[in-house]
Amino acid sequence: MVLGLTGGIATGKSAVSDIFKGFNVPIIDADQVARKVVEPGTKGLKEIQAAFGWQMIQPDGTLDRHALGTLVFSQPEALTQLNGITGPLIKQAVVRKLQGYRRRKVPLVVYDAPTLFEAHGASGMNEIMVVTVPPQVQLERLMARDHLNEKEALERIHAQLPLAEKVKRADVVIDNSHSVDKTKAQVVRWLNEAGFGSLITTKTNEVKK
Ligand SMILES: Nc1ncnc2c1ncn2[C@@H]1O[C@H](COP(=O)(O)OP(=O)(O)O)[C@@H](O)[C@H]1O
Ligand SMILES: [Mg+2]
User: Three-state DSSP class for 117?
Assistant: First the structure.
């Protein structure tokens, strides 16, 4: 089973994915895959340079994430164009990883993808879990985590599909507005209901970082 894990930026996807890791559930981190497909020497980085110019490449040959972020979060067309470049490359890499887990008969894999709905990545998922918090909590946690001012944080929030829309499309909703323990209890309930109760043992019950 492949569980798609999504939510808004800074709603707590990584926190929930850490909880799954604590139960030895493998995680495919879409952000990590997204970084790999634009490493120096990749087709992805060459296409970004062709589309947005050499200003996007740092002197050491790596992608200038800050410059690219500033561009795409202020220009929706640029974000669409970027997703058009990286989307297919990410999908290919994820499919390959999933095939590996299937071969090894791993019962549950979590695909942690911030833009699962936006990038049409929801199709390969058996179920979708959406992590949500109230807007004010999201804004505060994002500003604190990424050292952004309110305007920058709101730009990043508004560049995504509205959180309420994601919640509507979810099979299961996790409310991460309270303590991590309360969030963990919701994950445990889902694991039990989905038939993965055997993954919850006292041995794996500690949340690993
Ligand atoms: N239940 C929680 N209580 C307090 N802070 C939290 C909680 N869950 C996450 N955070 C904090 O909020 C920020 C965003 O969480 P994170 O898991 O990184 O979000 P995402 O991966 O969805 O972008 C992080 O700084 C994280 O430490
Ligand atoms: Mg995260």
Answer: coil
